[in-house]
Design brief:
about 20% strand; seven-stranded mixed sheet; about 40% helix; about 725 residues; six-stranded antiparallel sheet
Length: about 725
């Protein structure tokens, strides 16, 4: 019986094995669908051969996506100010299998340019966080995005998580970003009335990176609120040490020093406010009050009438005046009616070719001009009066004579401006322009003028080849721009509008050597002396002239100053933001670089901005046009009552003073209201032509002055003045 049972089972297995291929062929798809949860599907719904081919085509198409083409398209949209189109293209890349973090960083970077929150972006970044919550890089960028858009609670969580990750993992997150992380956290706590914790974060930020000035000013605000004026003063002054251009702090320091009962220091900062054009009425009132309430600080041992005006004359290098080029007329002051001066040697005053007065050396004289009449005073007594219709000329027979002029104003409305006594080579001219005022002009030869100009524009301690390059550049610039003030009756002014000229006090043996070694050398293009413009620091990439002034010159094109060509602009939105926030390697960043010029940060004073442009609540500042190397061409300041547009050279002034037009903007919101605006910038000046700091960096690398000049001014030659 048992044997029959076994035989029966084996027979049945054999028969089932024969029918298995038939069963699988006929009912396999149905069984598969049922197991996969689609058991109700009819057999007729099985994909056809045509549908299978279509599915295969989709897979092939995904594999054939040209990421490079999409990246170029997204980047071009960005530089064309088509920001939503750029974001949508990066989203397409994100969904097509491109590197998600790279796509997300570009999406975040472009979102800074929108005047509204893009919900599609927020959703994408939020969903992505589940997969990248342990990524240091993604935590930083996403937390900053949340902070910027006002989601402070979630931003706080992510920033704290980032700090934990930084302790657990090796990271290449820069010290600058770490310092910014502490600033963002401190700001979140400060706005939730947790000042002590906020202060700790600001101080930690300073420990990580001293050049992030946001932490200094924020810490100073906390100390000020606590009435710890001494510490607040310390923070503001450390901030100024990092960035001398932050003249808005003069007012804060003046107020704090008064509260701290340090009257003379307060007086000094009120004076700086006036020189910089900051709250002049308030500053002048406080100066008057201090002088009235504290006369002991301003008493003189002798009355002004009895003071002996002794001059310590500079020991200058005696040179032969330049015979290859005419003398220059340099405007020192406009619209004055009084001049106090001394001469190192005996002098004469001429009207036309006639000598009308002869004066003695080392004696103070005063010339007043009123009602079309010159009055020459000595010791308070009128020595001569004259009603001319020509320029009054003061000169000496000594070719290396110096004139000391009193109370010369310089750098008006700049943080470094002031008033001082100065000494000048050459002759002094007084040119009537109205019945009550004259222009003060220095009549001087080209070589003598350059002895002062070159060290006024570049540090004399820099490498000799850089000083030679600056000498040739300055000489070329001067000759090309001689008609700049033709309507005012002189060639060039003595300020940054033309080229800084501060008299013999600037002269230095190092620059004297460079100037005389390159005597009469100029830069030419197609036989003409070029407009050899230059700036302090380009941020690592110079700009083409047409994008700054509208005039295109073959020799003034954009030049990459990356020492090893680590980057080549234009960059993607994320990388251009990195370029501004970080400090990439270049000739512009070296031991000669002034602190916070290669890269700088500015927090915009919203109240000052509203007052300047007549705006009600500001909703944001948006970049609407920029060049491929990051120079901002146009911005819009959006207020509740109107939108103000600003273009080109006006932008720096309209944003209350920026170092350059190279920057990115971050509008920071809280409860859908603009809280603050932070600007990250690069370079100091217009960035066209020679980058002076980079020239010094190149000279250290054994590049000669001719190589330096040819690097910045394309297709040019160095020739001698005829």
């Amino acid at each position: 019986m048992r044997k029959l049972t076994i035989i029966f089972i084996l027979l049945m297995c054999f028969l089932f094995g024969l029918t298995l291929p038939y069963l699988f062929e006929s009912y396999g798809p149905f069984i598969k669908n049922y197991v996969m949860g689609n058991g109700n599907q009819d057999i007729e719904d099985i994909p056809s051969e045509q549908e299978k081919n279509k599915a295969d085509e989709v897979v092939v198409k995904k594999e054939e996506i040209d990421f490079d083409q999409l990246l170029k398209k997204a980047e071009q949209h960005f530089y064309d100010s088509e920001y939503k189109e750029s974001i949508n293209t990066y989203i397409e890349l994100y969904k097509s299998g491109y590197d998600k973090i790279s796509a997300a960083k570009n999406i975040i970077a472009v979102s800074n340019y929108l005047n509204e929150e893009y919900s599609q972006v927020s959703n994408l970044l939020s969903n992505m966080y589940d997969d990248y919550q342990d990524s240091i890089e993604y935590n930083y960028y996403y937390a900053e995005y949340l902070y910027k858009n006002g989601d402070k609670a979630e931003a706080e969580e992510l920033f704290f998580h980032l700090l934990i990750l930084l302790e657990q993992q090796d990271s290449d997150l820069s010290d600058r970003k770490k310092a910014l992380t502490y600033y963002y956290l401190g700001d979140i706590y400060l706005n939730s009335d947790r000042e002590n914790v906020a202060l700790d974060f600001f101080l930690k930020g300073i420990e990580h990176e001293k050049q992030i000035v946001l932490n200094y000013t924020a810490a100073a605000e906390v100390y000020k609120n606590k009435e710890n004026y001494e510490q607040a003063i310390s923070m503001y002054e450390m901030c100024l040490n990092q960035d001398h251009s932050m003249s808005n702090l003069y007012y804060e320091l003046a107020v704090l020093y008064e509260k701290n009962e340090e009257i003379l220091k307060a007086y000094n900062y009120w004076q700086r406010c006036i020189n910089s054009g900051i709250k002049i009425d308030i500053a002048q009132k406080n100066i008057n009050d201090i002088r009235e309430n504290h006369p002991q600080y301003f008493e003189r041992e002798e009355t002004e009438e009895n003071v002996v005006f002794k001059i310590d004359w500079y020991d200058i290098k005696e040179i032969e005046t330049n015979k290859n080029f005419r003398k220059l007329k340099i405007g020192l002051q406009e619209n004055i009616n009084e001049l106090n001066f001394q001469s190192q040697n005996d002098f004469m005053i001429k009207y036309g070719d006639n000598i009308i007065f002869e004066g003695n050396k080392d004696t103070r004289y005063q010339i007043n001009f009123s009602d079309n009449t010159f009055y020459i005073f000595q010791n308070g007594e009128i020595k001569k009066s004259l009603s001319p219709d020509q320029t009054l000329k003061i000169s000496s027979t000594n070719k290396n004579n110096l004139f000391a002029l009193y109370n010369i104003k310089f750098g008006q409305n700049y943080f470094w401006g002031g008033v001082e006594n100065r000494q000048y080579r050459g002759d002094i001219h007084l040119q009537p322009i109205t019945s009550e005022s004259v222009n003060l002009i220095n009549y001087i030869d080209l070589s003598s003028y350059l002895l002062s100009v070159v060290p006024s524009e570049i540090y004399a301690s820099w490498p000799q080849e850089a000083l030679k390059a600056q000498s040739v550049v300055a000489r070329s610039y001067i000759i090309n721009n001689l008609n700049r003030h033709k309507n005012e009756g002189y060639d060039l002014c003595a300020d940054v509008h033309c080229i800084v000229y501060s008299g013999v006090k600037s002269e230095h043996p190092n620059t004297n050597t460079a100037i005389l070694a390159t005597k009469n050398e100029v830069i030419t293009h197609q036989g003409e002396v070029i407009d050899a413009v230059f700036s302090n620091n380009s941020g690592g990439y110079t700009e083409a002239s047409q994008y700054v002034w509208g005039n295109s010159y073959d020799y003034l094109k954009a030049v990459n100053i990356s020492e090893s060509m680590d980057y080549q602009l234009p960059l993607s939105p994320h990388l251009i933001e990195e370029w501004f926030v970080e400090k990439p390697s270049s000739y512009s960043n070296n031991k000669y670089t002034i602190t916070n010029t290669y890269r700088w940060i500015k927090s915009v004073d919203l109240e000052a901005l509203k007052s300047r442009h007549g705006l009600q609540d500001i909703r944001g500042i948006y970049i609407t046009d920029r060049t491929n190397i990051g120079t901002v061409k146009e911005i819009k300041i959006e207020g509740q009552n109107k939108i103000v547009s600003s273009k080109d050279s006006s932008i720096r002034r309209d944003l209350n003073g920026l170092k350059s037009n190279k920057f990115i903007i971050k509008n920071i919101y809280d409860d859908n209201k603009l809280q603050k605006i932070i600007i990250f910038g690069a370079g100091w000046g217009h960035s066209v032509g020679m980058d002076q700091t980079a020239a010094a960096g190149m000279a250290v690398k054994d590049k000669g002055y001719r190589d330096i000049i040819n690097y910045f001014y394309l297709d040019t030659e160095i020739t001698k003045l005829e």
